[in-house]
Amino acid sequence: MTDLVLTVDEAAERLRVSRWTLYNLIRSNQLRTVKIGRRRLVPVNALIEYVDQLTEEAA
């Protein structure tokens, strides 16, 4: 089974950015997250949507 959600650290690693940068993306509503209990998690499809959006803007 593939992961549905990632921790902030895992998401930052996948995007090849720092935790600080990832939290800035979250704060600016550029990257969707979900909260489960006290944990902030990033859905894998939110990463795909974010990268797709960057690709469209660059075209």
TrEMBL record:
Lineage, top-rank taxon, reads Bacteria
Return the InterPro entries for the record: DNA-bd_dom_put_sf, HTH_17, SinI_DNA-bd
Report domain Helix-turn-helix positions.
5-53
Which Pfam families does this entry report, sorted A to Z?
HTH_17 (PF12728)
What is the recorded name of this protein?
Helix-turn-helix domain-containing protein
Origin organism lineage: Bacteria, Bacillati, Actinomycetota, Actinomycetes, Streptosporangiales
